[in-house]
């Protein structure tokens, strides 16, 4: 594989470990950009270079990866005044690893085509630990030719890479995955609290449910690892991010003429959780809203466990 210059914008919870794995893979020089200097410094220690500006990164790089909080940030970085497309060159590739609205993804693709730039949506699934381990699942929307070209780079970050179809289909898959996951976690929260008040321990409920038709990834991971111990770290998929994703999913459902009341209910549960102070915590913290546990009581529980 010929050496190329890569760019990576957004070194947050998922972006930093993804960038680290791509940098260590040695495809070619890696330029990085983030508002926070600390992850930039860590990438420099791995051999990356800090881009002086967005314009410099756009000018220098052949393939640019984005890992940003959501649609507004991606729109600004790519389409905004002085954004990537303003300084792009024909033959360049932009890959969006963020979770964004499907309509925005297709709008960016159209604008990129007009500049001779290729664009793919490639949102990621699974946890930060999976990002660190390079075992993410990545869902790609784009042409078969571009997918084949990108696959070696994505292999550095993921163990499962799926070509979902044309532009925007990666986002469709990610949004539907998260819509189902979030609804599952809300359902588990209600089941856990109900069973607990009826005299059944949370861990016992997980053990029994996992043997039957209620078994799921959400039960074995979000349920067992977070909801049973009632520990929801802040450096994970936060409640406010989950609200963003299910909002995008509901927007897509509405655009497709689908009424989705169960997803609407799950969104309202998350919004209650955020209003109760759990906006930055791992989103299964919604169980505390179902149980009526306040943020103050939750913090006191953490202090006792850390003593």
Overall CATH architecture of the largest domain: 3-Layer(aba) Sandwich
Count helical runs: 14
What structural class do you assign from the helix and strand content?
Answer: alpha/beta
CATH topology of the largest domain: Rossmann fold
Structure summary:
This is NAD(P)-dependent oxidoreductase. This protein has 14 helices and nine strands.
Key descriptive features of the protein:
alpha/beta; Rossmann fold; six-stranded parallel sheet; 14 helices; globular; NAD(P)-dependent oxidoreductase; oxidoreductase; 6PGD_dom2
Describe this structure in words.
The protein is α/β, with parallel strands linked by helices and 307 residues long. The chain folds into two domains: 6-166, 3-Layer(aba) Sandwich (Rossmann fold), CATH 3.40.50.720; 172-306, N-(1-d-carboxylethyl)-l-norvaline Dehydrogenase, domain 2 (Orthogonal Bundle), CATH 1.10.1040. It has 14 helices and nine strands. The chain has helices at residues 15-25, 37-45, 54-60, 71-79, 102-114, 128-133, 144-155, 169-197, 202-209, 217-227, 239-255, 261-278, 286-291, 295-306, and strands at 6-9, 30-33, 49-50, 63-66, 93-96, 118-121, 124-125, 136-141, 158-165. The chain has a six-stranded parallel beta sheet with strand order 3-2-1-4-5-6, with helices on both faces. The mean pLDDT is 97.
Write the layout of secondary structure elements.
Elements: E1 6-9, H1 15-25, E2 30-33, H2 37-45, E3 49-50, H3 54-60, E4 63-66, H4 71-79, E5 93-96, H5 102-114, E6 118-121, E7 124-125, H6 128-133, E8 136-141, H7 144-155, E9 158-165, H8 169-197, H9 202-209, H10 217-227, H11 239-255, H12 261-278, H13 286-291, H14 295-306
Parallel strand pairs: 1-2, 1-4, 2-3, 4-5, 5-6, 8-9
Antiparallel strand pairs: 7-8
Helix pairs in contact: 8-10, 8-11, 8-12, 9-10, 11-12
């Amino acid at each position: 594989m010929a050496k190329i210059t890569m760019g990576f914008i957004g070194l947050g919870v998922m972006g930093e470990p993804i960038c680290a794995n791509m940098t260590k893979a040695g495809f070619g020089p890696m330029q990085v950009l983030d508002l926070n200097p600390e992850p930039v410094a860590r990438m420099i220690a791995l051999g990356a270079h800090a881009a002086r500006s967005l314009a410099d990164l756009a000018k220098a790089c052949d393939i640019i990866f984005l890992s940003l909080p959501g649609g507004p940030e991606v729109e600004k970085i790519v389409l905004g005044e002085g954004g990537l497309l303003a300084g792009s060159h024909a033959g360049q590739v932009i890959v969006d690893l963020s979770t964004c609205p499907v309509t925005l993804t297709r709008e960016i693709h159209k604008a990129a085509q007009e500049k001779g730039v290729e664009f793919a949506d490639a949102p990621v699934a699974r946890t930060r630990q999976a990002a660190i381990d390079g075992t993410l699942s990545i869902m790609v929307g784009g042409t078969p030719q571009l997918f084949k070209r990108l696959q070696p780079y994505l292999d550095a970050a993921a163990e499962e890479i799926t070509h979902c179809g044309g532009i925007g289909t990666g986002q469709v898959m990610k949004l539907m995955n998260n819509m189902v996951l979030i609804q599952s976690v809300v359902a588990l929260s209600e089941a856990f609290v109900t069973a607990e008040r009826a005299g059944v321990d949370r861990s016992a409920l997980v053990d029994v449910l996992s043997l039957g038709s209620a078994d799921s990834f959400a039960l074995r991971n979000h349920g067992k690892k977070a909801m049973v111990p009632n520990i929801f770290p802040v450096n994970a998929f936060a409640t406010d991010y989950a609200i963003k994703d299910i909002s995008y999913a509901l927007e897509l459902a509405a655009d497709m003429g689908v009424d989705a009341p169960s997803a609407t209910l799950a969104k309202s549960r998350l919004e209650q959780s955020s209003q109760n102070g759990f906006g930055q915590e791992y989103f299964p913290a919604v169980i505390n809203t179902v149980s009526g546990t306040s943020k103050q009581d939750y913090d006191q529980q953490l202090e006792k466990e850390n003593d």
